[in-house]
Design brief:
single chain; 448 residues; alpha/beta; Rossmann fold; six-stranded mixed sheet; four-stranded parallel sheet; 16 helices; 13 strands; binds ligand F0G
Length: 448
């Protein structure tokens, strides 16, 4: 099957390597239970000769697919016919060169770039993936969709489901879900089910629910969703005048982004559209640092595809035995059983990557610094800047290297975190309101 079609699915487990048509709907390999990839027969796809050829589509952006920041790169995610593609104008995002923040971090002012994915229609990077997943859902004629979420996936799913007439059910855990996000999925008409458990519990339940009720799962286990997220890297390269940066820094939660970024660079290198891959840094919150512990402390690696599964199995058994629950202010990445762990290990190998974790205080300070210089972001996104500080301090990242940090979600997703930082926490970058009597002279005195 694999050489006849443009795209097919393939199990990432080398010992299995089972292949499936793109019309089949799985979120795990039916033969062995491992993750699936979307693979391409590049000789059957008209890939542009150079990446800058994609720039031509700016001139034809009245075509909805050329307007989309995902589908204008469609040859690189060529798994479905144009007629199935669902777009709500995703990917109109910005690569902002942030000289002020670079200087504050002790970097060469021109070196730091922030890829602001908060500009997406639902306010986070998820729309890049959701447009791809829902296009596939249309292709296979799905009637209903579902996801487990810490908030952003659900907001994005609800938006896309609404746009193409699929039912949407969101599974959220108790407690930490930022209100900005929850309000979106309710407003877009999704059926919201709150499970007495955390995200990891919801993630497990939703897989069983989807299997039992034949519902289309849009979490990042879905290999088609990750295809859309590759385009975040293409837009960074585009923003740099079609050059590859030295570093990509991304927060790590369920590890879908890091996985898809690694896949993007491996493919671009394979088809000769780039001549080198950037390095990748994945930043965990300290209170949800499974990847950091597994990679840095336990030595887990992709190892050319021969992953030592026992290391991860023992680690998760330990979490179960101790009843461990992740805990971080960066609720978006409060995940201790990342479903894309293996694909992320592969990305780390492709990109000579590093992993580290940062504390909640470091995340919040970094978030305030991002805000101070313009864009603002939600806590999980600021883990990138908090991580960059460590990487600069220990010399892993050079002060004049070009670094692109992916700001995954909009500031207004989690306004409580911002208000609390500025009004209650009294930290280095807090900027609380000043109280004054209702008196003109006193107000003016304060403003001098
Ligand atoms: N940043 C934000 C703002 C997120 O919402 C998420 C994940 C991540 C980073 C982590 O990305 O999973 O690709 O490593 N949010 C998911 C959700 C879990 O349900 O909204 P990842």
């Amino acid at each position: 099957m694999s050489t006849e079609t443009r795209a097919y699915q393939k199990c990432i487990n080398l010992a299995c390597s089972a292949e499936y048509d793109c019309s089949e709907v799985y979120f795990k390999c039916p033969a062995c239970g491992d993750l699936l990839d979307v693979k391409y027969n590049w000789d059957k796809i008209r890939v542009p000769k150079k990446l800058s050829d994609f720039a031509k589509r700016w001139a034809t952006r009245n075509n909805r697919l050329d307007f989309s920041g995902v589908w204008r790169f469609r040859e690189l995610l060529s798994f479905c016919d144009d007629r199935y593609k669902v777009s709500v104008g995703e990917g109109q995002t910005l690569l902002q060169q942030n000289c002020g923040l670079a200087q504050e971090l002790g970097m060469e002012p021109s070196s730091l770039f922030l890829q602001y994915e908060g500009l997406n229609p639902s306010g986070s990077f998820k729309d890049n993936g959701m447009t791809a997943a829902f296009s596939h859902a249309q292709m296979v004629n799905a009637a209903a969709s579902a996801c487990a979420s810490t908030g952003n996936t659900s907001a994005s799913m609800a938006l896309y489901a609404h746009s193409c007439g699929l039912k949407a059910t969101v599974f959220i855990g108790e407690g930490k879900i930022a209100f900005g996000k929850l309000s979106q999925s309710m407003d877009f008409g999704a059926h919201t089910i709150q499970v007495a458990g955390d995200f990891d519990d919801c993630m497990k339940q939703v897989q069983d629910v989807c299997t039992e009720l034949n519902i289309y799962l849009v979490n990042s286990l879905n290999p088609f969703r990750l295809e859309g997220q590759k385009t975040i890297m293409l837009r960074i390269i585009e923003g740099l005048g079609w050059q590859v940066p030295d570093w990509i820094i991304v927060p790590g939660g369920n590890l879908g982004n890091s996985s898809s970024f690694g896949k993007a660079f491996a493919e671009l290198k394979e088809i000769g559209l780039i001549d080198r891959v950037p390095r990748l840094a994945v930043i965990n919150a300290r209170g949800a640092n499974t990847l950091t512990e597994l990679v840095n402390d336990k030595g887990l690696k992709w190892n050319g595809g021969k992953v030592d599964n026992k290391i991860a199995d023992d680690y998760f058994a330990d979490l179960d035995a101790t009843g461990y629950r992740p805990d971080t202010i960066a609720s978006a990445i409060e995940i201790s059983r990342p479903v894309n762990l293996k694909k992320c290990l592969r990305a780390l190998e492709v990109c000579n990557g590093v992993v580290l974790d940062v504390t909640d205080e470091e995340i919040l300070d970094a978030k305030a610094q991002v805000g101070k210089y313009g864009l603002g972001c939600e806590p999980a996104s600021a883990a990138t800047i908090a991580g960059l500080k460590y990487l600069l301090a220990n010399g892993t990242v050079g002060k004049d290297q070009r670094v692109a940090c992916v700001l995954t979600g909009h500031l207004l997703k989690d306004p409580n975190a911002t208000v609390n930082y500025h009004s209650k926490m009294a930290r280095e970058f807090s900027n609380p309101p000043v109280q004054v009597e209702n008196d003109l002279a006193k107000i003016i005195a304060l403003m001098k």
